[in-house]
């Protein structure tokens, strides 16, 4: 199993978490509304986690899992038709083109971690796409009738509804707390 992350996004997430933690005592010491500081700090921390820290690719011999801001999708390799790197990493499957949040541009800096003891190594979007293409099976030409048995290979999507809802609720609450000031 290999995991691909974007180190610059994770560094920014850590910086935002530090800012969120520092804002709480500063806001409480200066007085004012008790909700004015903690709610925006929670919002900043949640956005940093959901948008900058959580996105990743998980590559196994059986599937490619894409964890984005809105959903996690698992693609069995036999359902993947192509992996492109023209405008970032794009996965083409029988469901269409899936653009990924982790590598939205061809110059994105990524890190590949393979296994538990191996160190992370930097990879470009083009190198990552080439490595992912190695897993994509060659198209099969069928002469004659289809096979008698077919094993299902569903593409699974799991929405991150709670985190998106929490970001919306905390964003509105932060705005309302700031408006009361």
Model description:
The chain has helices spanning 7-29, 38-53, 125-133, 161-179; strands at 2-5, 56-59, 63-67, 71-76, 80-84, 90-93, 96-99, 110-114, 121-123, 156-159. It has 181 residues and is of the alpha+beta class. The chain has a 7-stranded antiparallel β-sheet. Strands 5-6-7 form a 3-stranded antiparallel β-sheet. A hairpin with a 2-residue loop joins strand 6 (90-93) and strand 7 (96-99).
Topology (elements, then pairings):
Elements lengths: L1 E4 L1 H23 L8 H16 L2 E4 L3 E5 L3 E6 L3 E5 L5 E4 L2 E4 L10 E5 L6 E3 L1 H9 L22 E4 L1 H19 L2
Helix pairs in contact: 1-2, 2-4
Q: Biggest β-sheet: count, sense, barrel?
A: 7 strands, antiparallel
Globally, the shape reads elongated
Q: What is the count of β-strands?
A: 10
On the 0 to 100 scale, the average pLDDT is: 86
Order of helices and strands: EHHEEEEEEEEHEH
- N-to-C terminal Cα separation, in Å? 50 Å
Rounded Rg: 21 Å
Strand neighbour order, sheet with most strands: 9-8-1-2-3-4-10
Beta fraction = 15-25%
Structural class: alpha+beta
Q: Tally the helices.
A: 4
Helical residue percent band: 25-40%
Residue windows where pLDDT falls under 50 for at least 5 positions: none
Summarize the structure.
The chain is built from 4 helices and 10 strands, in the order βααββββββββαβα. It has helices spanning 7-29, 38-53, 125-133, 161-179; strands spanning 2-5, 56-59, 63-67, 71-76, 80-84, 90-93, 96-99, 110-114, 121-123, 156-159. The mean pLDDT is 86.
């Amino acid at each position: 199993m290999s995991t691909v992350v974007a180190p610059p996004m994770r560094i920014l997430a850590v910086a935002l978490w530090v800012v969120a933690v520092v804002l709480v005592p500063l806001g409480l010491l200066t007085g004012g509304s008790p909700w004015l500081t903690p709610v925006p700090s929670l919002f900043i921390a949640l956005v940093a986690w959901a948008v900058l820290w959580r996105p990743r690719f998980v590559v196994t011999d059986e599937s490619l899992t894409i964890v984005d801001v809105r959903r996690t999708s698992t693609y069995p390799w036999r359902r993947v038709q192509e992996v492109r790197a023209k405008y970032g990493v794009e996965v083409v499957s029988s469901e269409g083109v899936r653009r990924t949040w982790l590598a939205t541009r061809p110059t994105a800096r990524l890190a590949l971690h393979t296994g538990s003891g191996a160190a992370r190594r930097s990879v470009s979007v083009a190198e990552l796409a080439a490595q992912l293409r190695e897993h994509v099976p060659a198209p099969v030409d069928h002469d004659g009738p289809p096979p008698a048995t077919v094993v299902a290979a569903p593409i699974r999507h799991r929405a991150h509804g709670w985190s998106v809802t929490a970001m919306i609720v905390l964003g509105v609450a932060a705005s309302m707390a700031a408006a009361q000031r």
